[in-house]
């Protein structure tokens, strides 16, 4: 009874992550998580109404670990060009560190996320939104000139996919990756600075 | 005997592709291909000295089907900005068409290619080289201003990975993909046009 009252959504998600870490995405179901918690699956269903809902919540929490710390960079008062450079380096660095430190868990989370289209789409919106904010600040300060900060933010995220999208994780050990990121970012920054062609 | 004399490298590669199409990358071995051709594996080894050599040759031929037609675009006399735009659209379009027309074969070739690091590295060099040539032409004509055409060509290829790299194939059905490509290319073209910041 005391266990049932202490069964918060957070505790369920902690356990779901542990199940995911140990057994992979196929076992991160309501039933398996309930078993690991020693509670009835009805108790878990009270918080997550389906396997898909639980999966989305696990994916969201994982993705938020990437996007939330970036808010500090995105809202930093430094000039937009430096801020943009630092934000992209940090996104890429965080993903690469996660993949390097625990490759198996990273793969498990990635597989789970690919099944959680809503969570991934939302995550990409959040990241593109932070980039758009930096671009808009740069336009306001006269550093950048773009017709549409939202479109530019989305384009910046996509143009740097090789350096942060998990589909490219097998390429992240290649030598020269930081030089490659630097070259791509330099070209993109020049693009933001340019006056649109008439 | 007449069969043995007609056993060219091209005929072996045709058969290897057929085996790959039907049975997947694990079966595209010298032994399986020899069996499909009705010849001894020694006859195949005379052309390809190992499983890896055969695999590389199959991957190279497949990748050349993408890069070779692009030479015509890269060397076209039209102005570099239009040419660059057309080249990137054609690379993306070719990959997406191949993935759409025969998804299973595309996956098999992709798996085979990921095992053929040399062939892939060479393919990326070829593509980046074509882009660098267009950039250099643009610099010579006064359309572009970049410090290093080779670095810019490589950056252009990487910044557009989402639209041609097979790791992104599951995203190629998303609505708005052409608009996304257009936004990324517009930003990159502005970057090439810009004077480097002092």
From TrEMBL, chains A, B:
Taxonomic lineage of the native organism: Bacteria, Bacillati, Actinomycetota, Actinomycetes, Micromonosporales
Coiled-coil ranges from the UniProt annotation: none
Protein name per its UniProtKB record: TetR family transcriptional regulator
Keyword Nucleotide-binding applies: no
DNA-binding region, residue intervals: 29-48
This protein's UniProt keywords: DNA-binding, Transcription, Transcription regulation
HTH tetR-type domain location: 6-66
């Amino acid at each position: 009874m005391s266990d049932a009252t202490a069964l918060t959504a957070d505790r369920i998600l902690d356990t779901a992550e542990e199940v995911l870490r140990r057994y992979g995405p196929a076992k991160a179901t309501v039933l398996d998580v309930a078993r690991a918690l020693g509670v009835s699956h009805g108790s878990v269903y009270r918080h997550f109404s389906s396997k898909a809902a639980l999966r989305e919540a696990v994916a969201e929490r994982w993705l938020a670990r990437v996007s939330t710390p970036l808010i500090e960079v995105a809202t930093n008062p430094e000039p937009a060009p430096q801020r943009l450079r630092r934000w992209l380096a940090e996104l890429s660095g965080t993903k690469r560190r996660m993949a390097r430190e625990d490759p198996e868990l990273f793969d498990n989370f990635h597989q789970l996320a690919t099944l959680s289209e809503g969570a991934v789409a939302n995550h990409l919106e959040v990241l593109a939104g932070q980039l758009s904010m930096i671009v808009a600040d740069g336009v306001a300060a006269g550093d950048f000139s773009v017709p549409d900060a939202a479109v530019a933010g989305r384009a910046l995220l996509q143009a740097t996919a090789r350096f942060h999208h998990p589909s490219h994780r097998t390429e992240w050990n290649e030598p020269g990756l930081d030089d490659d990121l630097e070259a791509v970012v330099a070209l993109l920054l020049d693009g933001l600075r340019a006056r649109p062609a008439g």
